[in-house]
């Protein structure tokens, strides 16, 4: 497993370790990696940060795979998937890579190509303008404020290094111009997108040829950042035909194979609007596992034994899964309050505190905190509290500004 800092890597490590697989965890240098302290991790290694040294990262993973009996390498994030995908030929005869087709990964990682694909397949998507110069902002004047300013890629490689993507909001024309100008200098182009209010809905599946196996759907209860981010708590719900058909239209069109998730917003009318496609393991992967769909095991069986996953599983609905450190981050954002000009109701700090303070109720579980495997959860909490209370104040402020 790569990206040992990620929630997806921890879910994979626990799932496959419990199934009896020998699991090694790789992680960036000098970053906490909860998955590597799991009882199910047999060994671990560190590699150069892929976004700083893509070739060094690939060489490190390749060397580890050559020196150990590694049957399958599973990257979890865009930061590791894309460098490996570009060098997949070098791993032939060494180890298999759990990667979809390179062409499919290129489309799913490109947010503007995803928008164009959605329009082609008649999947609702926010109004979006590709801005390559300040003159292109004329096309975004019809959008009501706030508008979303986001990079076209989560990571865009320029040579061996990557420009990391960001998502911000602009609340006026001057604010928009300033933020777009900054991203143009950094990345060369940027997307300006209408703001969509609504509830976050996720749809996951396992694509084999043109068939979607193991459909699964969930509702976001809380997001780490209430303005929009990954979820800190979410609940399994029934698969609905609209989300299934939209996802199938997108996934089969790009030719993706393996596990993926499609993110939507469901606005007040009840209809779906596409947010993005993740052609990779996702952060809330523990929820389908807890609900009865063990995607990691099915993925490994498919890659190593050619065994097809079931078409569908009658999974448990109403299961809630939380990530404790993300819940604390959510509470921190709520305490800071809504930005001036925020258009939708913002969570109440007191009500949020009360909800998060309930440690357990029937049907609830955790991504990170397990009594049977306590070290990853403890490590995550220790790092969170150290980062907030033990670091020098100036260093904490710098970290916060970089991660917002």
Structure description:
The two termini are 27 Å apart. The strands form five sheets. The chain has a seven-stranded mixed β-sheet with strand order 15-14-11-12-13-16-17. Strands 5-10-6-9 form a four-stranded antiparallel β-sheet, with helices on both faces. A two-stranded parallel sheet has the order 1-2. The chain folds into three domains: 7-99; 100-117 and 199-370, D-amino Acid Aminotransferase, Chain A, domain 1; 127-194, Dna Ligase, domain 1, CATH 3.30.1490. It has 13 helices and 17 strands. It is an alpha+beta fold. Helix 3 packs antiparallel against helix 4 and helix 10 (324-336) runs antiparallel to helix 11. 37% of the residues lie in helices and 23% in strands. It is globular and about 55 Å long.
What features would you highlight for this structure?
404 residues, alpha+beta, D-amino Acid Aminotransferase, Chain A, domain 1, Dna Ligase, domain 1, seven-stranded mixed β-sheet, four-stranded antiparallel β-sheet, 17 strands
